[in-house]
Amino acid sequence: MKDYYYILGVERSASKDEILIAYKKLYRKFHPDNNDGDKFFEAHFRSIQEAYEVLSDAQKRAKYNFKLYGETANTDVLDAVAPKVREFTASKKYISSGDLLTLTWRVAHADRVFIEHLGKVSSKGTKTIRLTEIEEATIPIMLRASNSLAGESTSKTIYVYNKNHKGKEEEVAVKENRVQEVSLAPPKKTKKRARKKVKKTPKPNSNRPSRAEGNALYAYSIVFVLILLIIFLAYIIYKLNKFS
């Protein structure tokens, strides 16, 4: 299988612009019209055009990389969709300096995968590394995946913890998961409960006479007035009889 990167004289990580510049240079140099129809130049020119046609197209280039270098797990990663991290795990949760740690990962829909401490990797695999000079309590290891055709990327981070700081990872987890909850709903209006007015019944006055007592007192008063009136009239009659 032809190595198109070698034919164009570019690196595998070359951008689309770098590939175009290399193609233009080779186009002028090896075009049959500029070389008197030489068969060698004509055959090489066809290879240059073929290489540019593949490497200038993101989907064709990703398929080519898979066939030649095995850089992707399957050809469906070439769809113009966001990449997905299917799996990313570590063999140990607690490590000390110098311990071996095995990382396992599987990514779909990505043509570029990068893992901290490993660098550029294929879309799936397993790799054992040795971490030395560990001083931090928590060691984050991040995986980044991108799909150049879709122009999207994603990442996932796993954490391993230093045995010498065992217990502190809980504090780190609390800080990482601490989220301030903010309500965007308008504040609820609290309804004021209307206080029921209770009619106060007046307390009975013990010094005030009852209705029956009042009626009897009124009758006695009338009788007393009538008696006085009768006495007064009798006195007047007596005086009149005395002078006559």
Protein architecture, described:
With 244 residues, this protein is α+β, with helices and mostly antiparallel strands. Among the domains are: 4-56, DnaJ domain (Helix Hairpins, Orthogonal Bundle); 75-175, Immunoglobulins (Immunoglobulin-like, Sandwich), CATH 2.60.40.10. The chain has six helices and eight strands, in the order H-H-H-H-E-E-E-E-E-E-E-E-H-H. The strands form two sheets. It has a five-stranded mixed sheet. A three-stranded antiparallel sheet has the order 1-3-6, with no helix packed on it. It starts with a helix and ends with a helix. Mean pLDDT is 78; it is low at 72-77 and 178-185.
Throw out a few tags for this protein:
3-stranded antiparallel beta sheet; alpha+beta; Helix Hairpins; 5-stranded mixed beta sheet; 8 strands; rod-shaped; 38% helix; 6 helices
